[in-house]
């Protein structure tokens, strides 16, 4: 997402159709937005279907949108204006809390309050793999090596799942049984950050080279928020960490080569809980979704709101942004 001057913000440039910005809400709607104009260009209204939209993910090639809707995942063709999904994955018995694509877009991973992690093949509607986590799953991410998953759960655990061996190979419990809410892994696989419901963040350096050292080496921990932490995310360039909270703020932390975190900015403007966030590919912008029914686009350099996206009738709880190369 290219940087914009102050003057150019007054007259938004022609919408860049290569930028895909999507939000989901408890109002059962999924909205696509023109990032710079703030105009809603498309709405997927789900009518009488039960269950809110919990999480969103855009495939790496920008062809598909995965929407976690209560106990199922709908896959939409982004280029097709139809509101009907092209695939629906069903099999979870509890609320789906996490969804993300494999780097080549061939499969999808989901985590759920039913205590399972499932891998779905996009060429079929069947579950490809199923892992029993034994506790409600709050977040799941795919390792950059595409051969491992890392999850966090309501029992306070982080787990690493080896896809080749089909087993859990590592388990961490950084704060006892305090639920771990969100995790983020550096794009280069160098470090892992996790946040719990009490607003505390934990950081590990990941050892990929030396067998004589533990895979996860605890580096630091810090109190990010005084209230419930909802989501955290490392920027693509691994220079910043964004943390979202029930305290209505988003905090931006700078990351040093020694994995030390310094508070750089507090993004204020949302009126209620901030539930989700997504960075632009160049790490210069951040999108957030809030219970105040809006999403916002923030400029990282200034900490100011560039655009506000208004249209949802209930809490906006998830967002997805893809402005990189397809």
Automatic annotation (TrEMBL):
GO cellular component: cytoplasm; TORC1 complex; TORC2 complex
PROSITE patterns recorded: WD_REPEATS_1, WD_REPEATS_2, WD_REPEATS_REGION
WD repeat placement: 89-130, 222-256, 267-308
Keywords: Cytoplasm, Repeat, WD repeat
Cell compartments where the protein resides: Cytoplasm
GO biological process: positive regulation of phosphatidylinositol 3-kinase/protein kinase B signal transduction; regulation of actin cytoskeleton organization; regulation of cellular component size; TORC2 signaling
Signal peptide segment: none
Cytoplasm recorded as keyword: yes
InterPro entries: MLST8 (IPR037588), WD40/YVTN_repeat-like_dom_sf (IPR015943), WD40_PAC1 (IPR020472), WD40_repeat_CS (IPR019775), WD40_repeat_dom_sf (IPR036322), WD40_rpt (IPR001680)
Pfam families xrefs: WD40
Similarity comment: Belongs to the WD repeat LST8 family.
PANTHER family: G BETA-LIKE PROTEIN GBL, TARGET OF RAPAMYCIN COMPLEX SUBUNIT LST8
Name of the protein in its database record: Protein LST8 homolog
